[in-house]
Amino acid sequence: MKVRSRENDEIFISQNQDMEMDHVARFLRGKTVLITGATGFLAKVFVEKILRLQPNVKKLYLLLRASDDKSATQRLHDEITSTELFRVLRDNWSWRFDNLISSKVIAVAGDISFENLGIADSKLREKMWSEIEILVNVAGTTDFNERAKLNGWPNTYVFTKAMGEMLLGKFKGDLPLVIIRPTMITSTFKQPFPGWIEGVRTVDRIVVNYGKGKLSFFLGDFNSTLDVIPVDMVVNAMVVAMEVHYADRQCSRETIYHISSSSRNPMKVSDFRKFMRCYFTENPWVDTNGNVVKVGEATLFTAPGRFFLYMHLKYVLPLKVFCLINILCCQRFKKTYTNLDRKIKYILRLAEFYRPYTFFTGIFDDRNLEKLQRVAEDRGIDVTEFNFDSKSIDWEDYIMNIHIPGLFQHEK
Ligand SMILES: NC(=O)c1ccc[n+]([C@@H]2O[C@H](COP(=O)([O-])OP(=O)(O)OC[C@H]3O[C@@H](n4cnc5c(N)ncnc54)[C@H](OP(=O)(O)O)[C@@H]3O)[C@@H](O)[C@H]2O)c1
Question: Among 42, 165, 185, 262, which is best to mutate for testing ligand 1, by the most ligand atoms less than 8 A from CB?
Answer without folding.
Answer: 42
